[in-house]
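Memo to structure team: turn this sequence into structure tokens by end of day. - J.P.
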Amino acid sequence: MSSAAFCIRNDRGDLMYAAARTLNDTTNICAEAIAIGDGIEYCVTHQFLPVIMETDSLALLNIIRQIWSIPWNIRMEIRRIQYWSNKGQVQFAHILREGNALADCLANCVLKFAGNQIEVLSQFAHHCSSSNIK
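Reply from structure team:
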């Protein structure tokens, strides 16, 4: 079983929203692509624009930027990312793995405790990010 998670922070770095969900068995790059697609879709539909989408997957970033060809198993997710990116002001950036700790933690939590999906609203997310996850 796999999972995907994303976090939304404002321009000051405050956590505004986070969500995670379980997936069928899949690859790491596919789970990361699903998480990016979910995050961009949420930001665009809720008018959190402009967006700087950060990922610790340089391989996926190169695929999204069309530097590398799209593997067949993530073609639909990459098209979804492109669709939502074209609807809003979205930039992509590479970050170190440590910068993705909260999303990684949420993805693991949904597998262990929460069932199919979890949503974290800003009040709870603020508590989690400030006291438990660095």
